[in-house]
From TrEMBL, chain A:
Membrane-topology descriptor: Multi-pass membrane protein
Sequence intervals crossing the membrane: 25-42, 62-80, 92-110, 116-134, 146-168, 196-219, 231-252, 264-286, 293-312, 324-345, 366-389, 401-421, 451-471
Organism whose genome encodes this protein: Hymenobacter guriensis
Top-rank taxon, per record: Bacteria
Chain ranges of the NADH:quinone oxidoreductase/Mrp antiporter transmembrane domain: 113-414
Protein name: NADH-quinone oxidoreductase subunit N
Pfam families: Proton_antipo_M
Entry keywords, A to Z: Cell membrane, Membrane, NAD, Quinone, Translocase, Transmembrane, Transmembrane helix, Transport
Its job: NDH-1 shuttles electrons from NADH, via FMN and iron-sulfur (Fe-S) centers, to quinones in the respiratory chain. The immediate electron acceptor for the enzyme in this species is believed to be a menaquinone. Couples the redox reaction to proton translocation (for every two electrons transferred, four hydrogen ions are translocated across the cytoplasmic membrane), and thus conserves the redox energy in a proton gradient.
Organism phylogeny: Bacteria, Pseudomonadati, Bacteroidota, Cytophagia, Cytophagales
Family: Belongs to the complex I subunit 2 family.
Automatic annotation (TrEMBL), chain B:
Top-level enzyme category: translocase
Species of the source: Hymenobacter guriensis
Transmembrane segment boundaries: 14-33, 40-64, 70-94
Keyword Ribonucleoprotein carried by entry: no
Enzyme Commission number: 7.1.1.-
Protein name per Swiss-Prot or TrEMBL: NADH-quinone oxidoreductase subunit K
Record keywords: Cell membrane, Membrane, NAD, Oxidoreductase, Quinone, Translocase, Transmembrane, Transmembrane helix, Transport
Length: 472, 110
């Protein structure tokens, strides 16, 4: 809760820095604001559930942990915006403020206890992202990404709200725990409304499934990620996804844990999970652009996270929550690093396909190393964070008897090794083709340090998973 | 104006409101799926949101529970914010391609 206040107030203050003639202050100030937010967020750790706004927001260890993940992700991502600072981008203060505001939405999403806060969180997060998707105003691809994201996003917000309205009609409340009670024992006069409740629940699944890009509502993801400026695409695929899955888990665990409700959403979610894994991984294989491959990879990771939702064990603090938290952290760290390297290379070489990476190991060994570590982590190779992320989720699923699902997911992650190894092969085994790929990509010392830190984090998560894994 | 508004709302059976809202919502969905002009698509989205508002108000009046009506205010406020951003995006595109038809935008392909 304090982090929401800090980010909103300092985010507003940050807007005024836009009046300054020079851009140089903006990046340090934005990072400082995030550090302050991280600090006040840490103060809430283990203080027990605190509720705000008559119980609409609840801050507990679950929300503090996920808030930490999204703020740290944003913090690690910011150094890659240095090019905007150097180029004298006129609207940089607004971009940073919008990022801070969308973090506020993400924090509301991980700590809501009332469907109104879920809706507001999703909207605060998305409206800021609609603007940032179109931030490259003269570029038609960025325009198209913004329009597609906006039209699809507001359409699915409407869908989500229709589900909320039907649930309200069937239970008479928006509060998660009261919905859960009403699902188990409908109040007098509400018994005949259970079908409406189930329909509302499924419609809500569609709405949130869109936000986390689960198939069959994933179709916007590759187009929007490809058109969006890389820096903001990285933000979308990490922060939005982490917050979305935390919200998804909270909804299922706190509002619909009852057996009768599970009988409806569990098969639906399982089908979505299988479809997401299939489409994400098979789709990524056929791509020629690294950025599009990363977009499909983010769909496939949504599939792995859906397994954790399917295999949940009825409580917020269990294997499922821990699995999702660890996976989100490992995935975010690796994805930030991948998008960061891609942005640096694409800014210098003006291309985003695999061949643009040719010979990178010769010209920029550090970039090649960072991208290699992140690709291995995304593929789930041991000694990286991604391995334990998958391991925790798969073992939770096996314990709950979803062996078929796990076997399918393992087969799919074998497919994923193919497309995650392609950038590594391009960087290490292919010679530079021409003048542009033979010249080193300019990298600032700050960015090098961040990339090294990201690689180190990935390895630490892969060697000592216990540091984070048992937190919830 | 001393009439009790929830009682006025309750003169129509609740299921009629549900059918009405569902019909409005479906018209909105249909419009989003079939129309090609970004502004019309956007209007259809607003229609969907208003269907939700009708539904929430009706439930709220029938249950004598103000929560639903407060939710409606939030939806209206957020929809207004969305309109501001959405129209800005559409204007930005109009400046670049001199049109608002969504099928002109096909630079990103599957």
């Amino acid at each position: 809760m304090n982090s929401i206040i800090v980010l909103s107030v300092l985010g507003l203050a940050n807007l005024f820095l836009g009046f300054l003639r020079s851009n140089r202050l903006l990046l340090p100030v934005a990072m400082l604001i995030l550090l302050v937010a991280l600090g006040v967020n840490y103060l809430d750790w283990n203080t027990g559930p605190l509720s705000f706004f008559s119980g609409m927001l609840v801050v507990d260890n679950f929300s503090v942990a996920f808030t930490g993940i999204v703020v740290v992700t944003a913090l690690l991502l910011l150094p890659f915006s240095q090019k905007y600072v150097r180029d004298g981008e006129p609207n940089l203060a607004e971009y940073y403020s919008l990022l801070l505001f969308s973090l506020v939405g993400a924090i509301m999403l991980v700590s809501y206890n009332h469907l109104l806060m879920l809706f507001l969180g999703i909207e605060i997060l998305s409206v800021a992202m609609y603007v940032l998707a179109g931030s490259d105003k003269r570029n038609l691809r960025s325009n198209e990404a913004a329009l597609k994201y906006f039209l699809m996003g507001s359409f699915f917000t409407g869908v989500l709200l229709f589900g909320v309205a039907l649930i309200y009609g069937a239970t008479g409340t928006f509060e998660l725990s009261q919905i859960s009670a009403a699902v188990q024992n409908p109040a007098p006069g509400f018994e005949s409304l259970t079908p409406m409740l189930y329909i509302g629940m499924l419609i809500m699944l569609v709405g949130i499934g869109f936000k986390v890009s689960a198939a069959p509502f994933h179709f916007w993801t590759p187009d929007v990620y490809e058109g969006t400026p890389t820096f903001f695409a990285a933000f979308m695929s990490t922060v939005v996804k982490t917050a979305g899955f935390a919200a998804f888990l909270k909804l299922l665990v706190q509002a619909f844990p009852a057996a009768n409700a599970q009988g409806v959403w569990l098969p639906t979610l399982t089908a979505m999970c299988v479809l997401t894994l299939l489409i994400g991984n098979v789709g990524a294989v056929t791509q020629t652009s690294v950025k599009r491959m990363l977009a499909y990879s983010s769909i496939s990771h949504a599939g792995y996270l859906l397994i954790a939702l399917v295999a949940f064990n009825g409580q917020l603090y269990g294997a499922s929550a821990n699995g999702i938290m660890f996976y989100s952290l490992a995935y975010s760290v690796a994805t930030v690093s991948a998008f960061g390297v891609l942005k640096l290379v694409a800014d210098a070489r003006m291309r985003e396909d695999y061949d643009g990476l040719n010979g990178l190991a010769k010209t920029n060994p550090l970039l090649a190393f960072a991208l290699t570590v992140s690709m291995l982590s995304l593929a789930g190779i041991p000694l990286t964070g991604g391995f334990f992320g998958k391991f925790f989720i798969f073992s939770a699923a096996v314990e709950n008897g979803y062996i078929g699902l796990v076997v399918f997911a393992v087969v799919m992650s074998m497919v994923s090794i193919y497309y995650y190894l392609r950038p590594i092969i391009a960087m290490y085994m292919r010679p530079a083709e021409d003048e542009t790929t033979a010249t080193p990509v300019p990298v600032g010392p700050f960015q090098s340090a961040t990339l090294l830190l990201l690689a180190l984090l990935t390895v630490v998560l892969g060697v000592l998973p216990g540091l984070v894994a048992g937190m919830l | 104006m001393d009439q009790n508004i929830p009682q006025v709302i309750q003169t129509v059976p609740l299921q009629y409101y549900v059918f009405f809202a569902a019909a409005l919502f479906s018209i909105g969905v249909l419009g989003v799926l079939t129309r090609r002009n970004a502004i019309i698509i956007f209007m259809c989205v607003e229609l969907m949101l208003n269907a939700v508002n009708v539904l929430l108000t009706a439930f709220s009046a029938y249950r004598a529970d103000p929560n639903g009506q407060v939710f409606v205010f939030f939806i209206m406020a957020v929809a207004a914010a969305e309109v501001a951003v959405g129209l800005a995006i559409i204007v930005m595109i109009y400046r670049n391609v001199q049109h608002t038809a969504v099928n002109l935008l096909n630079r990103l392909k599957f």
